[in-house]
Write a structure and sequence with these properties.
It is built from eleven helices and 13 strands. With 342 residues, the protein is α/β, with parallel strands linked by helices.
Length: 342
Amino acid sequence: MEKKKVLLLGGAGFIGLNITKFLSENRDYTITVADNFSRGKKDEYLIKLLENPAISMIEGDFTVPATYDQLEKDYDYVYMLASVVGVNNTLEIPHEIIRINTALIYNTLEWLKASFVKKVLFTSTSECYAGTIDAFGYKVPTPETIPLTIEDIGHPRFTYAVTKMLGESGFLNYSRKCGFECTIVRYHNVFGPRMGFKHVIPHLAQRFLANETPFLVYGHDQTRSFCYITDAVEGTVLAMENERSNGEIFHIGTMDEITIEELIREAGNFFGYKGEYENAPTYPGSVARRCPDITKAKNMLQFEPKINWKDGLKLTLGWYKAFFESGKESFEKAFEKPKANV
């Protein structure tokens, strides 16, 4: 039987590389990782994966249409993960978030129009609900049918979400007209080792190791649900490989809603912190509550998260503790205090 061909656009990122690892260990596929490798080609995870002869690498800037000429045209599955993400990025370079993510979406769609790809999975985000709960009081846990809402369209915090909304509409509508199947997954706070340095959990590791005291608890009463990377990967692959998912949107996350204060105190326990905690303002535009209803993914995909957030947190903090203590240089700036006005 001929092997299926898989392309991962943005395949060297956090989720992409973990999907590549999962597929190479659990599926008999030929896999192409396409990326600009902004995290560096010397990444130990990437180097190890590329030892597998079934995995190949294509390097290029996919905001440039000509870069797509390096790709083949007949993949069975295309995972579209490429984008710029991170709260700090949205506040510091919102114009680049718009430019890069929009170019990646449009160029990929135009390439698909002239290709023979069978199915595409576009990765979206819970950020698309940024104004849904606060503005309209929709229920939590939140199902996929709830309207996507941005309260302040001009706020830089929401540039990432706006591009993901564009992508969802673009891939669903192009798929209907251009002869390929499409599935959307909306991630809800996926975390784990090597997730980057501009997210809350790496921030916590850095700050506890710096002996911050009192320890400032930004957005202490806000809630989130955190999904460990191995669960997110399995859910994503289930969404891609199940024919019932064609044309559908799924939440990939957990329904274990916790406060940010709970998260921070659990991280403090990991680091043996004995000092005081002090509540502080959070990032501008950060929403009060967020937790997905994953009933649809459970029923249609048999998606069932396995890793408890506390266990996943220990694994993740352990990785970042070792990283920061090793003296290695990170590929992006780490924690910066939220600014009062943006």
